[in-house]
Amino acid sequence: MGRIFIWSYLICLSLNLQASTHSGRVVTEDGRPITAAIVKIKGSSQHFYSNDNGYFSIPRTPENGIITAWRSGFYIGTMGQKSNVIVLKPLPVDNIDYQFIHPIKHPDKGKRCVSCHKKTVEVWEKHGHSQGEKNQVFLALKNEFKKDYPNSQGSCNSCHAPINASSVTCDICHKINKFNKNSPGHGIQRYELMRPTDGMQLVIGPLKDVSRGHDTFSEVFRTSEHCAGCHSAKHHGKDTYDTYTQWLKSPAKKDGKICQDCHMPHPEKDRFIANGSSAILRQAKSIRNHSDPTMLKKTRMKFINFMLEATRLDQFLDVKVIVSNKNLAHSFPSRSPFRNAYVSVSARYFDHSKVPQTSGPTLPFDNASGLFLAKVLKPRFLIESYKKGASRKTNPWGEFFWWPFTLKQDSRIPPGKSKVERFSFKLVRPDPVVIKAELVYQKYFKEMEKKYRLPSSAVTLDSIEIVR
Question: Which of 22, 62, 75, 291 is at a distance of 20 to 30 A from 169, taking alpha carbons?
């Protein structure tokens, strides 16, 4: 009687375990088992692995739950409703003749990114990545380059309008499989791309459980290397675009932070990343926003400290300005060598008459008191002796980076560092003085804006006034 009870108990236990788990197998298209495939319930943070024979067992899925599997070198596969086998298709060999898809204008509406990711595409439209060959500055500088090198295409398009695209589109970023850090090229030339053959599609991304049938995962999306190709560049053996190389040496990297943590942060709450009936609610920690909050003035000042101090002496006014790069993972300012920032300092009586400056730095424009933060290049020698037929004069803001250059000035503030400058003003009467300091950020030098008739890019990040 006891034996019958024990056997009944074991049978019930086995049935309960079967009811609470879901078993299956991961195989190739020709039926061979795939070991160590990552198996997930779509949208869940948990994952499991297939064994040496391709078999797996996972907790029973909720109603309408989707089971996916992925292994490096394959598309993500999905378990069908009538089978417990997940078939993984091999990824294609890169097709250099592939035509990139425009997220809005592609003739096949079903292939447009906007069809499923409307909000993301709307964000992209407002971002610099969407501008490419429409960008005024890009066109002006490319024209300058052609004056010097009329028979060369240069490297401009490698970042701003890669291969056969007119800008940096969703499809370009989601065809990146790996970053080749030792590649001598620029932009897109430094990436290993994976473009499918005609009639097929492939979307590479940071998720391992997308169930559309044409997606795969790459670790590069979870690293700063995904940005490195276009945000680091050398010309004539020297760093010109150095945001990524600065990050490599920054405290942020040591703390495990990547570019996306600031520029594509996780949303504050769980949300859908696609529209349509097949979309699921994704956990906030598994996805990222495509909007860049660092472009907002209030966000930038979370990374920068700005202070103004002033002491009135007998005949002089001693002013101290402190700018600290407290949380940025790169210098302030960074990115293009044309980007700059400055602190303007003024001292005036209540009747608006100026208090004359007696010592301290001045800005290279407007003949005003202030601190200039920029990376300025100067030519090693005139380009006339470097390239026959070139006849331009040097530029007041420094040199184009395609010229042979040396560093004229690099007064940018590295991560975790501060810059302190003192100014002295001669007091000619005992009246109170208003001291004002403004921290201004610019995408382009003022002289560039005048030359190319660009709208002002100046953004006042902070302004401080004190009375002494």
Answer: 75
